[in-house]
Structure prediction request, 280 residues.
Amino acid sequence: MKIRELIEAYLAASPEIRGTQRNTLERTGKLSIGAKDARKVTPHQIIEWAKELSVTCAPCTISAYVGYLRGAMDYAEVGLGLDGISGMAVYKAMPILKRQRLVGSGGKRTRIPTPEEHQRIIAHVGPGIVADVIAFQYEGGRRIGETCRLMWGDLNTDKKTIVVRDMKHSKMKTGNTKTLVVLDAAFDIIMRQKRMTNLPDERIFKVSARRVQAAHTRAVKALKIDDLHLHDSRARVVTKLLTEKYTVPQVMLVTGQATAGMVTGTYNRMQAEDFPRRAA
Prediction:
């Protein structure tokens, strides 16, 4: 069995795997490693594949590729009944991957979109559902996959809250569902969307996350905006709320982050100039 065939079987058996993990595994199947025999792949082949990736990928991205592949291979025997397949080749390759700095954690990002950049991106994309979703990301602080799954039946227009289902969680693939605050500007964007039915499961934003991501990436490239990701808008919302002196628990009611450390560390991008000064 080729690794690409293993990945296809793994994803078919794992509908709960979505977003970045699914996309990365699908890409892995199309790369050189996908043609290798899943039962005979060697640590050396894993290392050589990582070197190929290093031409265009950062160590943190290669870590994701390798880690997701290892997960599929570890699942094979018990989950799929495929004897002789395990992630052992990946485990054996890891010391060398780390020594050669082919894998590693990413440095903390400090980038957030400025209002001017956001306006330029929206203007470049042009009016329509995609621009509305990008605007919602800038104001709402949701992950793009969550945004594109939001449903009318989960919106409380009186309290300006919404149920966000199956949010990303390190240990839960499904079931991490929370009722969160919708900030005023984000709420206004929701309310200008057209509702076509009275069905509670009608999506608010009828567009795929992939399409929005692609449009944002094209706009950033065309406008020559340096090092800006759509997901940086989530950090922008966290930083804005902290700067406005909302408490960490209050911020978590907007973003849905599981720990205070995600708010104060990963997504907090305040700079020294954001420090509030008392009036003289």
